[in-house]
Amino acid sequence: MRLASSLNPAAAQHGFLSPTGVEIAFLLVGLVTFGAALVTVTTRQLVHAALWLVVALGGLAVEYLLLTAEFIAWVQVLIYVGSVVVLLLFGLMLTKAPIGRSPDADSGNRWAALTVAVAAAVALVWVVVDAFRATWIDLDGPPAGTTRVTGESLFRHWVLPFEALSVLLLAALVGAIVLSRKATADADASGPTAGPTAGAAAGPGATSGPKATADTPVARPGEKEGAR
Amino acid sequence: MHLAYPAVLSALLFCTGLYGVLARRNAILVLMSVELMLNAVNLNLVAFDVWLSRAAQETLHSGQALTLFTIAIAAAEIGIGLAIVLAVYRNRGTSDIDKLRDTAEGPETGGPDSSEAEKAEATA
């Protein structure tokens, strides 16, 4: 009921031609984010793509801050900018990606992809703008996404999915270790590519009690400890 | 703030990621584009959660909880995805998704590639 009542008076006192400061900041940061995303998907230098992805994800963190969701913003900075991009850079390094320009970064169907993407963008933007033409977010008052609010909702209403998610993360970590470990065990003489993962897999196993032999059932509890 | 700003930005980012997924050849660049699409969805979730937490009295903050879950699942996805890409690279010596056509159906049947594919399947 308050939802319905907040729509019509809100539409009366806002206007497109009088943007607030938050809207201007959101627009500018959004332009930077969208430009960085475009460069990420179009550049021919693979490492530059990962670095422009940092700009895009950091810009999204600023957008979260402008939307008063500060906990999400810091989680975004920590996880995406901190770890996901580093993982991507490690992936580029381990697959021996070329440093300079690689002319075959785009596949042959890029014009079909461009058509599909532009058509989807036009359709989505048209539908979204038409649907939410008279809808305003009220950013005044207490912020909607402080750590306190997010933590209370997360641990009061979303405890079971949260715990299930931790099990999923553990399974994913163990799965990633097993995937890369099997490949190193099979191609054991593959030199420098086997180095970091073999070291990472042997490190926690060496610190735990049993000696890190090639015996997988012995080494596996140590891996799980290290994965956490 | 007008709700159209984050919604339009999210739609544009999603379509940028869509273009990247369809047009890129390197598997790691495809994973980057997938990350862009996931982030577009996250922005939508956060914006609508902030809007609904103002407009409704009782809210579970499901948008922000779902955003956290999406971030965690994206981290798991990128770890598994990179492990698979590295395993493929070790077996085949390439991470170009155009050249990984072993499960492709159609007129072209990989002549010299099929024995290698069976060996890779046996080792994987």
TrEMBL record, chain A:
Phylogenetic placement of the source organism: Bacteria, Bacillati, Actinomycetota, Actinomycetes, Kitasatosporales
Species of the source: Streptomyces yokosukanensis
Membrane disposition: Multi-pass membrane protein
Function: NDH-1 shuttles electrons from NADH, via FMN and iron-sulfur (Fe-S) centers, to quinones in the respiratory chain. Couples the redox reaction to proton translocation (for every two electrons transferred, four hydrogen ions are translocated across the cytoplasmic membrane), and thus conserves the redox energy in a proton gradient.
Region of interest (Disordered), residue spans: 187-228
Family: Belongs to the complex I subunit 6 family.
GO cellular component term, pick one: plasma membrane
The protein, known as: NADH-quinone oxidoreductase subunit J
Chief localisation class: membrane
EC number of the protein: 7.1.1.-
Membrane-spanning parts: 20-39, 46-65, 71-90, 111-129, 158-179
Localisation per UniProt entry: Cell membrane
Gene Ontology MF term list: NADH dehydrogenase (ubiquinone) activity; quinone binding
Source domain of life: Bacteria
Keywords, in A-Z order: Cell membrane, Membrane, NAD, Quinone, Transmembrane, Transmembrane helix
Bias (Low complexity) ranges: 189-214
Catalytic activity: a quinone + NADH + 5 H(+)(in) = a quinol + NAD(+) + 4 H(+)(out)
TrEMBL record, chain B:
Main location, first listed in the record: membrane
Role according to the record: NDH-1 shuttles electrons from NADH, via FMN and iron-sulfur (Fe-S) centers, to quinones in the respiratory chain. The immediate electron acceptor for the enzyme in this species is believed to be a menaquinone. Couples the redox reaction to proton translocation (for every two electrons transferred, four hydrogen ions are translocated across the cytoplasmic membrane), and thus conserves the redox energy in a proton gradient.
EC number(s) reported in the record: 7.1.1.-
Catalytic activity as recorded in UniProt: a quinone + NADH + 5 H(+)(in) = a quinol + NAD(+) + 4 H(+)(out)
Membrane spanning residue stretches: 66-89
EC supergroup of this enzyme: translocase
Region entry Disordered, spans: 98-124
GO biological process annotation, one example: ATP synthesis coupled electron transport
Protein name, entry field: NADH-quinone oxidoreductase subunit K
Subunit structure: NDH-1 is composed of 14 different subunits. Subunits NuoA, H, J, K, L, M, N constitute the membrane sector of the complex.
Signal peptide (residue range): none
Membrane topology, from the record: Multi-pass membrane protein
An annotated Gene Ontology molecular function: quinone binding
Keyword entries, A-Z: Cell membrane, Membrane, NAD, Quinone, Translocase, Transmembrane, Transmembrane helix, Transport
Organism, scientific name: Streptomyces yokosukanensis
Recorded GO CC terms: NADH dehydrogenase complex; plasma membrane
Record's subcellular location: Cell membrane; Membrane
Membership in a protein family: Belongs to the complex I subunit 4L family.
